[in-house]
Amino acid sequence: MKKMKNKKRNEFVKQRLWRYAKGESKSLSIGLFLSVVRTALEIIGPMIIGYILNNYIKLDMDIRDFMAIAKLLLLYLVIYVLCGLFSNLALISFEQAANKISFSVQKDVYKHVTKLPISYFDNLPAGNIVSRITNDTNRLKTMFQLILADMTTSGIMIICIYGMILVVSFPVAILFLTLVPIIYIVFKDLRHKTWKYTTLNRSYVGAINASINENIQNMEIIQVYNKENHIKEEFDHINKNIFKTGLEVTKVRSYGGFRAIDALSYVGTILVLLYFGMGKITGAYAVTIGSMYISIDYVTKIFNNIKTVVSRFGELEQSYASASHVFDLLRLEPMEELPEKLTEVKGDVRFEGVYFGYGESDVLKGIDFEVKSGESIAFVGSTGSGKSTIVNLLLNFYCPRLGNIYIDGKNTKDINRNSLREQMAVVLQDPFIFETDIKGNVGLDEGFSDAEIEKALMDVGAESIVKRGIHEKIFEKGNDFSQGEKQLISFARAYIRKPRILILDEATSNIDTETEKIIQKGIQKLRENCTTFIIAHRLSTIKDVDKIIVLNKGKIIERGNHKSLMEQDGFYKNMYDEQMRNQ
Questions:
Q1: Which CATH number applies to 13-331: 1.10.3720.10, 3.40.50.10540, 3.40.50.2000, 1.20.1560.10?
Q2: Which is it for strands 555-560 and 501-505: parallel, antiparallel or unpaired?
Q3: Phi and psi for 337 in degrees, rounded to 5?
Q4: Which terms are listed as keywords in the entry (predicted)?
């Protein structure tokens, strides 16, 4: 089963590589043509020397012989200058193709990643994804460079030169075939071991990138709890595995590749010398010094090119492993592009018998409620009761396992996600601030004017931010702003888009009560003329909402407004009284 899965995966990788290669067929064809020309020149060079040895090197040489040799050596020089020129031109063509292919892969992978369902990102660390998009695609570029610039050229050289050995000295060519099984065994062993260790190495590199990304983002927690040594030990463990697998790859390529091919090269030269030596001693067949030189030169060139292929083989396997990693992303099914688009949304929302779970067990169990356009609804309950899950389903990040969600009577399973989210705005508990200026954070580069940005900030109560200037640069995570200021920027970001459905996900739970009073102005502005969903931590902030849904373990246990729920003297009243006592 595993072999079948790997076979399908390899087939998919090959198809993708071929598709990208076809996209750069012009540059690749030019490179291949120049490589063939270079090979032809490489073949002609030794024949000139062989011709000189057979026809001009003798005891009674005269000036005409020297002149002929000089002309032939000049031709030899021109050939190898041209050989170097065509080699460089071929390399440039292959490099251009490799860079363009890498660019296309990175663009396609990044575009594909943005279309993947949120559930995919729940299961893979961000550092791992970054590693695939950057490191692995760069290795993929190296793969095309190695295959085309070195391995393809070397392959052409081996085939063409062996063909010339067949013409120049057929018996030598037959003798050479006796070494082919040994070369095949070396290649097979090298490929198996290289694939094994490079695959392990690749997984460890992905793990260390994910670890570094996570640790840097949470450095405050690590230092507060004095976990630097623990984190270092984890890092060292992964790093040692990378070192060990890298060392094994080096050993395999060194001892299994270079040394074995070097030894076979010496054996090949000895076979050529034995053949010509036996011919000279026995007189059984004609032997010339020129043909011996050509045969030795060709055999040496063949083994040099085999050694080039072997030396690049480890890097090729690493690059192929990276290609598999990259294309694993492209194999993941993106979210289906739904045809129906929302226009002129009123904001009526209805949940009907909704069941949903992130794993095997359901987080939501039979959720039913309805909210009309312009109304506000709040969700309260203990941690893990399913409040944020309702919001995730409303935003269509996930689909219900059972049941349906309707907006203006249309099932969200059929609505185009982009058109749905264009009608919504979200303010999260922890606002995300981009490393750009205030204007960029509010407008998100959607063409809003300075005046519109400033008005949005003023309307939500962010006068202090406007005074600082909307073109002020915001640095890493907005650490030069208070939590309240970052939340006001987030409110302005939502407000300026005039959403028909507003989601406030515990938007005031991380700020002090003084700042909350300022932000309440922003909340009131935001709630005007739109349907509002509120996930509430502080129950005092939702006294004026139209409906309150009380959740416990994924089920609705109470519903009503603040007054009616307090009169019920149930779960909600107990929560509210507890908070009031704590305050």
A1: 1.20.1560.10
A2: unpaired
A3: -75, 110
A4: ATP-binding, Membrane, Nucleotide-binding, Transmembrane, Transmembrane helix, Transport
Q: Which helix (H) or strand (E) holds 117?
A: none
| pLDDT average, residue stretch 373-377 | 90
DSSP letters, 495-551, are: HTT--SEEEEESTTTTS-HHHHHHHHHHHHHHHTTSEEEEE-SSGGGGTT-SEEEEE
Domain residue ranges of the chain, discontinuous segments joined by + = 13-331, 349-582
Among 266, 272, 252, 273, which residue's Cα sits nearest to residue 303? 266
Q: How many residues does the chain have?
A: 583
b/e for 261-271, b at 16 or more Cβ within 10 A?
beebbeebeeb
Residue 354 has pLDDT above 90, yes or no: yes
Residue 583's CB is within 10 A of a number of other CB atoms, namely: 8
Instruction: Tally Cβ neighbours within 10 Å of residue 456.
Output: 26
Note the CATH number of domain 349-582.
3.40.50.300
Q: How confident is the model at residue 3 (pLDDT cuts 50, 70, 90)?
A: low
Average pLDDT over residues 522-527: 70
The DSSP secondary-structure symbol of 298 reads H
